[in-house]
Amino acid sequence: MTADPTATEARYSGRRVRRVEDARLLTGHGTFVDDVSLPGMLHACFVRSPLARAAILEIDASAALALPGVHHVFTAADLNPGVHEQWHTSLGPKMPETPRPPLAEGEVRFVGDPVALVVARSRYLAEDAAERVEVDYEPLAAVVDYGEAEHAEALVHPSHGSNVIGGFATMPASALDEVFGAAAHVASATIHQQAVTHVPIEARGLVVDYSQATGELTIYASTQTPHEVRLFCSRLLAIPEHHIRVVTRDTGGGFGQKVMVQRDEMCLMLAGPKVGAPLKWVEDRRENLIAGGKSRQEHADVKLAFDADGAIQAAYIDFVQDCGAYPTPWPVGTAASVGMLFPGPYRVPRAGFTVKTLYTNTVGRAPYRGPWQFESLAREVLLDIAARQMGMDPVELRRRNLLRRDELPYANQNGMTYDNVTPLETFEQALEMLDYPAFRAEQAEARRAGRYLGVGLGNYVEPSTPGQGYYGTEAATIRIEPSGRVNVYVAGGSSGNSIETTVVQLAADALGVKIEDVHTIQGDTAVTGFGAGTAGSRSASMTAGAVRETAKVLRERLLAVAAHVLKAPVDDVELAESRARVRGEPDRGITLKELADIAYFKTRKLPPEVPAGLEASARYTAEVQTIWVNATHLCTCEVDMATGQVKLLRYIVSEDCGPMINPSVVEGQIAGGTVQGIGGVLYEHLAYDEDGNPLTTTFMDYLLPTATEVPRIEYGHIETPSPGPGGYKGVGEGGAIGAPPAVVNAVADALSPFGVTITRLPLSPARIVELIEGR
Amino acid sequence: MGEVPVKLTVNGRPTEAEVEPRMTLADFLRETCRLTGTHLGCEHGVCGACTVLVDGAAVRACLVFAVQVEGAEITTIEGIASPDGELSPVQSAFRECHGLQCGFCTPGFIVSVTAFLRDHPSPTDDEIREALAGNLCRCTGYQGIFDAVRRAADAAGRERS
Fold first, then answer.
1. Fold of the B4-79 domain
2. Same domain, A655 and A749
3. Least reliable range by pLDDT among A14-18, A771-775, B41-45, B121-125
4. d(Cα A361, Cα A54) in Å, to the nearest integer?
5. What residues of B are in contact with residue A203 (Cβ under 8 Å)?
6. Which helix (H) or strand (E) holds B35?
7. CB contact at 8 A, A715 and A669
8. Residues within 8 A of A (CB atoms), B 56-95 only
9. Does residue A737 sit in the same domain as residue A764?
10. Tens digit of pLDDT for each residue in A260-318?
């Protein structure tokens, strides 16, 4: 990063600036997709499969269509032929993708598979009608357990020829036999993680408004990626991209579920132009839990070799993942990253991996906050198992193997090169915050009193801000309006991550204007440049780059005009608090309002080389391929031996996300992800029975953490700048990566007097009692 | 399905409408009254996003039919701030403490907490956590929400003393 000599001093970045989103959200005046109501709007409801796998013999919609107020019942024959092209921009058209018929065609492949789309005057009527659509199914053998998928006779997608979607390997496990054979100690385990799902509190939804007269299509979407919704839709329907406008004001959480267009949304895009009126679909919670997409559900054989002093000699992971019937997107790339990241922030001289992804007759996989986080879970849990077996303290074992700053950049053996990370520093900071020796003493004391406390750790390095292809650029337009007020237009895609506040802070600093003079407009493809939205922990760095590049143009222009008017050398002029002034002469200045007035209306006062107006657009191109982030999660717990209940006592996260634009936003992201990670270990389980029936279709069955279960989270920050704009790093996903191993290890540590080894999630109270009882 | 008349007061405004008996209070508020701040997160009474005050009591609007609240006084999230737009102490505390991120669950929390603090002006930390357990949030990990309730309670306590 080169220092910009004209840059003004940061006044707002780094501070806990109050969020600009809050005024509308606190008072009930946000605009979520279900709040959009258009004249004459119709409502859609899906008919979904009640069977995991079945042939569709016949669909009889006559009873449904006979209900007054019911306009259409679309089936695959009506909608599917409308598909022109169907691929996600981040992957391109050439990937070996899963066939994704919008509505099930010939066969249903999971409970919840959309079979028909009912359109009616109200959602109530649409639901009534959906119940009257008679579908004649012939049940077929379903592939439910992914452990049996590879060799099952039944095929989820016969056209694919196998239930193995794909895989990747650097080397077979046997290639490291010699190292493992010669090692002083080898630890191995098969570690399982159960299926969980994203659960944004606002489920998915879309309003599609097509104008026959103009051929223009407006989509109101609950999405993390408005521009991708537009681009995808333009290909799907063969409508020119500039005839589609996607508008997203507020999105009620996404966590990855709203990154990519799924089959349900495709149906709405296809149906919208056929119904002659705006069409709304907002799914209910049951639909979201059975059809919104799952994640996790995977296992691996993992092993680590150590020398006699506990130094890691080799690491291997053989990873298998359940991707359901319709994974979005193609899952093999993400699965490979589990292998690539498995060595983690440690010195691992030899390593390799195998990954395999499988189809099953369950809901499709969708990327969820830290989609590759299994690498951290498996590695950190195995490190604790190894420490216990070697009679070493798990802290000491990690301390010996963690990468030091002087070893960076460090190329791990599985294909990742880390830099600008501080794994040893966050580790030591977290331990100090806890006072680890004091906790161990307290634990020993408690055990003597018959109470079982435990402490657990999780270290990770995470690739944020992908810097290539679809993700590699981000645009901003800044308009300093004639009154001197500033509007900043960026693609957005905020789903709770405060990008509006972030942009306002960054733009105010970059232009030297008061924060109350800056407003931002996001999520509307009609007025913002293309951007890849909220994904990959990219928003902070990429948006900072976009604002920086654009503000630079306007700042130079403002300084040139001010210098001309003030008759001062341009190098002596500075911008601060919505005013240009001559350095050292505070009274010799001109306000932004006056500069704008000149730029728009008194253009003869402009210096000859400066154009009229104060508008600029620019596009930032990522400076590096990956911005690395790291953190240590450390928690303590008490396990109730009788009930199996886990109570988290202290929870510490020490992270290095570089300089913070807004510490409240950073901590909020960490906390949210951490609690999702805790939920994934202790409470959440998207369970199916052996016939493929989903068992958790309400919030009575799918248990989310509530305020009574979550611990107070304590934050430690280490600040190492990235090579990207402002030195910022991504922090959106890490909490969900670091929490699971820390919680598992804490429970395992508490149960260590019972000789328990934990290798399977979730850790429900019943499961913990079983473990204690040796079952 | 036949419609029946319903007459009630919403945020101080007398309201009359003809509705289907099966229309939930939440849909009545959102669709008939166009008060879309009352959000639906589960429609089975667990997430608490649709919480409104019915004659002062915090009620899940997805579990009540509009016709059941005939004659009642309803307060929705739109009626919590003062008429001139000044945030209530609970709303301000959520803002100060980063008690919201995506904001979808927020109206339910604000309404629930408003009723809770009215009835429990000096709550303990455990009472606060217990009170919050009826509302689900997926963004904040409840950290800022807990802080906001503590702050609002403490501020009200200082004002009383």
1. Ubiquitin-like (UB roll) (3.10.20)
2. yes
3. A771-775
4. 10
5. 41
6. none
7. no
8. 76-78, 80-81, 85, 87, 91, 94-95
9. yes
10. 999 999 999 999 999 999 999 999 999 999 999 999 999 999 999 999 999 999 999 99
Longest dimension (CA), chain A: 87
Q: Cite the beta strand spans of A504-553 per DSSP E.
A: 518-522
Domain boundaries, chain B: 4-79, 89-160
Adjacency order of strands within the sheet including A627-639: A452-464, A627-639, A646-656, A713-717
For residue A174, what is the DSSP state? G
Number of H helices, E strands in chain B: 5, 5
For domain B89-160, which CATH number applies: 1.10.760.10, 3.40.50.970, 1.10.150.120, 3.30.420.40? 1.10.150.120
Environment class of residue B77 by beta-carbon count within 10 Å: exposed (0-12), middle (13-18) or buried (19+)?
A: buried
A495 and A451 in a common domain: no
Give the strand pairing for A216-221 and A244-247.
parallel
CA distance B134 to A309: 51
Cα–Cα distance, A497 to A500 (Å, whole number): 9
Question: Per the confidence metrics, is the pTM higher than 0.90?
Answer: yes
pLDDT digits (tens, 9 = 90+) for A32-73: 999 999 999 999 999 999 999 999 999 999 999 999 999 999
Q: Helix or strand or coil: residue B49?
A: coil
The ipTM, to two decimals, is: 0.98
Residues in chain A: 775
Cβ B40–A19 below 8 Å, yes or no? no
Of A187, A458, A383, nearest in space to A303 by CA: A187
pLDDT at A10: 72
Does residue A280 fall inside a structural domain? yes
Residue A363, token pair as written in the block:
């809901």
Q: Same domain, yes or no, for A129 and A276?
A: yes
- Domain-embedded: residue A508: yes
Are A421 and A656 contacting, i.e. CB atoms less than 8 angstroms apart?
A: yes
Q: Domain residues for A64?
A: 33-140+203-251+258-291
Please report, as a single letter, which amino acid is at residue A649: L
Interface of A with B in 328-347 (CB under 8 A): none
